[in-house]
Amino acid sequence: LKAGSKVRLGGGVHQDKSTIVASKYGVVRKGLQGRIFIDNPTQKRYIPSVDDLVIGVVVEKHAEQYRVDIGIAEPALLPSLSFEGATKRSKPNIQVGGVIYCRVVVASKDMEPELSCISPHVKKEWVTGQSLYGELQGGYVFKTSLSLTRKLLDEQCYVLQCVGQSVPFEIAIGLNGMVWVNAASPLHIVVITNAILNSEYMSDEMTRVMVEKLVSSI
Amino acid sequence: AEYMGTVLNRIIERHPRFFSFQHTMPPKEVPIATIERKFILDALKQGCRIDGRGESDLRNINITFGEKMGTVEVQLGTTRVLSAVSGDVVAPYPDRPNEGFLNFFVDFSPMASPFFEPSARPSERNIEIHRLVERAIKETRAIDTEALCILAGSKVWSIRCDVHILDHGGNLTDCVMLAVVTSLLHYRRPDITVVGDEVTIHSVDDRQPVPLSLHHIPIALSFAFFDDGNLWAIDPSLKEELCCDCTLVYTMNIHKEICCLQKAGGTPLTIQTLMKLAQIASAKTIEITEFIKQKLKDDADSPHRKVIQSFGYSKAKDPIDVFAQKQPPAQ
What we know:
The complex is a heterodimer of chains A (about 220) and B (about 325).
Chain A: E1 8-9, E2 13-16, E3 19-22, E4 27-30, E5 35-39, E6 53-61, E7 65-69, E8 76-79, E9 99-106, E10 114-116, E11 134-136, E12 140-143, H1 146-153, H2 158-166, E13 169-173, E14 178-183, H3 186-198, H4 204-215
Parallel strand pairs in A: 1-5
Antiparallel strand pairs in A: 2-3, 4-5, 6-7, 6-9, 7-8, 9-10, 9-11, 12-14, 13-14
Chain B: H1 2-14, H2 16-19, H3 34-45, E1 61-65, E2 71-76, E3 79-90, E4 101-107, H4 124-139, E5 149-151, E6 155-167, H5 172-186, E7 188-189, E8 192-195, E9 198-201, E10 210-211, E11 219-226, E12 231-234, H6 238-243, E13 246-252, E14 258-264, H7 271-301, H8 303-311, E15 320-323
Parallel strand pairs in B: 4-6
Antiparallel strand pairs in B: 1-2, 2-3, 3-6, 5-6, 7-10, 8-9, 9-15, 11-12, 11-13, 13-14
């Protein structure tokens, strides 16, 4: 790193006066939005960091906030008004068991993490149903390991390209390991889910063969 | 003072987690999303399960034997169970001088699932599985406790089977039963000679240890029901188990005998369904029993096992002589 450059710190690194120190073992990588973090391929437990996009399940509903399970020790907080264009009179009514795609706003090891469905870029109201974050309707959600999630978020993800050539689908990937998939019929969704789960340790060639075999069953 | 009171109240309201005097209970079970539940049901209605299996397909069974005879680890898909059998010579109960002891201990280790709590008191599910295993083996006399008697009134075998659940991936019942039965078949107890009142327990170097005599091999097969009993699936995975209305466990052996039948959940089922599932369970039982026997045979023939047996494990070279006494020895 050049002296005087600005970097964002992700999971596994912290600042010690003027140096960046690693606090866990793994490979140093530069992730989304230029963030420096430590990659550990065997990790399955998510550690929240600010500006991560996660998928959570609502476990409790209170007057002012929801408690959302994102795979960490305590459920995270999602204020009821943290939706695009939400006011006290018009705010989304999400039930317990609902699946939410949202952003981590506060993530420190001393306080419980806080989430938000307000996006700094896409300014569509929640009422229209076209906002970037919010409740995910239909489809199926499942948990994978963190390294598979990062692989899926890559622009050149091979397994998603392979599957997308035969089966149209929509997908939302949470950095906490949760993945949401929606397609035309349950059989399609099952095929896509299994293709994603199987592709974790496969090479490109093996992935192509595996996807062909799965897709032929439709 | 009043003002301070209201300020404090507001702080306590805002941060209930820090100031709650009521202990917040962690969730008892994996939080399952509404769309997951709906999807599993929709997929089953179209005839497919989330892992691509058919309604009567079991997951892969993998059996690994430990170094000590009687230790077995069974994997049913992602569910893993470890079972270890050990034997000891003890005095029988005075009112049952001819009966040995056969005890099962099922441990729901917190390593299996973050929702298993390490309490001394067994949970309802723990008791259910424990009772199923006891009924299938003791009450059907798969191992006759009278056959464990060495010298009536003074010496009997006490066989102990410890089961540890290592990973909960759904369908613990079947996996535990499989592990228990395989470890009982795998276990070898020291050979014994009884001459009059003299009992000699031979060390493993002297005489080859002897297997326990199992009269039949009970195998458990679980079915999960959905949509008011209209849809069923064998060997449910974790998510399917959490979404189902009712489970039915058929414990059968290869002689087409039902050792034990257990139904949990209030969904009414028709006689046709019960009969059809009994047929399916019977066919699967035969497959699984063949598989276990093959695995046991492979282990007995493996060079690894032969090396362990030739070195033996006991250090004592002389056989242990035990003389019968008027009073049973103090435990």
